Amino acid sequence: MSENNSFYTSERIFEGAEKLLEIWFGPTSGSIPDISSEFDNNRPLRNGLRLVERDVWDEMLDIVKCHVLNVVHNDYFDAYLLSESSMFIYPHKIILKTCGTTTLLIAIHRLLEIASEYCQLNKVWRVFYSRKSFVFPEAQLGPHKDWNEEVKFLDQLLDNGAAYTVGKSNGDHCWFLWLNSPQNDILLTELESAHPLDETGSDFQDITIEILMTELSSETLNKFYHNPSEGESGTQGGARIDRKTGLCDIYPEAQLDSYLYEPCGYSANGLLRDNYFNIHVTPERNCSYASFETNIPVGHGTIADVIHKVIAIFKPEKFSVTVFKTREDNDNKKLLVVSVDDINGYSRKDRILYEFEDYDLIFAQFEREKNFA
Questions:
Q1: Burial, 88: exposed, middle or buried (Cβ in 10 Å; 0-12, 13-18, 19+)?
Q2: What is the full per-residue pLDDT of the chain (373 aa) written as tens digits?
Q3: 3-class DSSP string for the chain
Q4: Which of 280, 287, 288, 291 is catalytic?
Q5: What EC number(s) are associated with this protein in UniProt (predicted)?
Q6: DSSP output for 215-253
Q7: Annotated active-site residue in 99, 119, 174, 264
Q8: Residue 99 bears catalytic tag
Q9: What is the pTM of this model?
Q10: How do the domains of the chain map onto residue ranges?
Q11: Third-level CATH fold of 19-194
């Protein structure tokens, strides 16, 4: 995807599968210390991790081996479009997603230092790390060459973690997850008494939907190559791709920041109030891959609706879906399972429901039916 990634070769091979890291210092923006400053140009107040200046994040991303292409803001968070995927900065959490041969886990120590030094955030509430199985694991660096090495690295750095392998371990859509339990419940209880969990006073809710697609159709791949005759690449090219593919219609009310790479590849961040989505495409024919991820609540469309919209655009031969959602009642759990039931033109090869301490996870893997055009 990146124009400068060292893993490009003469055969144009690139590892599209992302590493996804979330570090939470509290369940909501209101659950962290009330330290704030003003944006320049009369932008809204910012606090927590949003206090950190751009050059500090740039230095941290050097450790990861990627850099910032563009940044957009709204009242709730900052969205960074990276040379290798995306970063979202909320007052109380950071979400960092990188592809290629980036060294994401190695940056955790620096991330924790930044949170403490600049934001007085000295205790981690939760950490989540996940990724799909790599196509080219031998090209990865450091602990990322092997899942067991990644788990060992995380276990040595963070307390109370648990690692899971979801899906067929001998399949190409196996999904890995490491997470830990909340570490500072007493402190959070005190903070939450002064800061309700959200504006409505309802219980804390969290959802992440991730769709990981491989073997994209030739028709789809051609749309994500830069053609100089059509105009510039970069953000202008990204906006052109949004319209050409219909990606701008998945959440039409969202603010979209997208980028077309040279000679090929595409990334986009979407902002919808306090929620995000991102899209990343590696269109090389021998390693084609696309991902879609969002934490936008189900009220903006059912899980099945989102899956159908995304699959209709990319037309992959294979894809997996993971939905990671805070636990509700049994009726909602049944709806979660049904949401990955039937996808027109695809046969489901796997479906697994995991029950964690506070979350439910549904994983499903699909392949295109042979007789489906």
A1: buried
A2: 544 443 333 346 788 889 999 999 999 988 888 776 555 554 556 789 999 999 999 999 999 999 999 999 999 999 999 999 999 999 999 999 999 999 999 999 999 999 999 999 999 999 999 999 998 999 999 999 999 999 999 999 999 999 999 988 776 778 999 999 886 553 444 444 433 344 333 467 899 999 999 999 999 999 999 999 999 999 999 999 999 999 999 999 999 999 999 999 999 999 999 999 999 999 998 889 999 999 998 877 789 999 999 999 999 999 999 999 998 777 788 888 888 988 989 999 999 999 988 899 999 999 999 876 5
A3: CCCCCCCCCCCCCCCCCCEEEEEECCCCHHHCCCCEEECHHHCCEEEHHHHCCHHHHHHHHHHHCCCEEEEEECCCCEEEEECCEEEEECCCEEEEEECCCCCCHHHHHHHHHHHHHHHCCCCCCEEEEEEECCCCHHHCCHHHHCHHHHHHHHHHHCCCEEEEEECCCCCCCCEEEEEECCCCHHHHHHHHHHCCCCCCCCCCCCEEEEEEEEEECHHHHHCCECCHHHCCCHHHHHHHHHHHHCHHHCCCCCEEEEEECCCECEEEEEEECCEEEEEEEECCCCCCEEEEEECCCHHHCCHHHHHHHHHHHHCEEEEEEEEEEECCCHHHHHHHHHCCCCCCCEEEEEEEEEECCCEEEEEEEEEECCCCC
A4: 280
A5: 4.1.1.50
A6: EE-HHHHHTTB--GGG---HHHHHHHHHHHHTGGGSSTT
A7: 99
A8: yes
A9: 0.90
A10: 19-194, 207-368
A11: S-adenosylmethionine decarboxylase (3.60.90)
Does the annotation count 195 as an active-site position? no
> What is 207-368's CATH number, 3.60.90.10, 3.40.50.150, 3.20.20.30, 3.40.640.10?
3.60.90.10
| Chain position carrying tokens 């949401």 | 339
Please determine whether the domains at 19-194 and 207-368 fall in the same fold group of CATH: yes
The reply to whether 267 belongs to the active site is: yes
Select which of 29, 31, 85, 339 is catalytic: 85
